[in-house]
Amino acid sequence: MTKAGEVEGRAGPPWWWARRRDVVVDVALAAVSAAECAWEGIRFAHEAGIPVAAGVLFGAVVGAVLVLRRRWPIAVVLVGIAVAPAEMGFLLSVAGMYSLSSSEVPRRIIAALASMSLVATFVVMYLKTRGDVEADPALVVALSGFVAVALTVPPVLLGLYIGARRRLMESLQERADSLERELSLLADRAEERAEWARTEERTRIAREMHDVVAHRVSLMVVHAAALEAVAVKDPARAAKNAALVGDMGRQALTELREMLGVLRAPPKPAPAPVPAVPAVAVAAVAFAGGGGAEDGPSLGELEVLVGQSRTAGMTVEMLVHGEWAAYAAEVEQTAFRVVQEALTNCHKHAPGARVVVRLAHRAGEVAMQVENGPCDGQAPEPGLPSGGNGLVGMRERVLALGGVFVSGPTEAGGFKVSAVLPTA
Q: How far is Cα 31 from Cα 34, in angstroms, rounded to an integer?
């Protein structure tokens, strides 16, 4: 981890400086201040009666203290106040007060040191002016006060402004970094939600394709097996079975074509804002086949569905209880798919078994049940593979609409699939 101001592959600035440019600026100011104080040290040496070399060296050391203005601004200001009686350190005092005011030092300390510098400058100017100018004492006081204020107040005000501006920029930078992190987090979450939506959509499409194809193809395989068995003995029945296989194949292709048409259709314009819809209802529409539910199968087609299974050689009895009513498209489609998939499983796993389909219309709900008895000794058709997704798909469809789904073996040795869907 590199320090502030460091460049990758290079060493950062030395000591307390954050940037190399700051080093150059401070060293240059300290050099100018040392030269100024050294020059003023000559006069100070004559007035103090000390060797000139000592006065020059003293001035140079005092002026060079300015190089510490970023690290110890209080010390620089105190040195400037201490050498004020020697009438040296003009740049030291001005730059020191600016550095102190723009630093993170508490305001009360800045005010105290600024007051001390103001008083020191005023006293020095008053003593110097009183001895060199023959004028009214009030004029001397006013002139001394003006010089003291001019040398102290502007650096302090400028330093306070620069410090406040720097802190504001740092705060804005921190806020921008925080917003950037939040936006990055939101983008990650949006990507996760989009991936979840893509996964759900792929699952929905796969389930719909399974429902459309599995039943038709299962019946086609059953009829093809029957056709093979009676092709020589009963040509008329063989021709009938062949026609049924062709009809079912065309129906399967038609349903697949309709589904692919829905998938390829351009997206519809966004509708006007509507009140919030419960998540269960949204999920129900999606699982029910979304985007084309009004064109899907309905409960009115159950008789045709059961008739196809009877034609395939299955003994199917259909019992309807209650008065028939029109339900929402997703409810009718889900009910139809549950019965369809249950009959498909009977073709696959219980050939020759007697099947009972029950449909009950109740107040606020519709119930369906498909129950098959034990097999009559026939082995499951090897040409009808099972992917194990039928029951899972039925359960997801029913639960998405807020219904109840139960499946499992019966005491008589068969299998039962039951579902209850709310119609509200």
A: 5
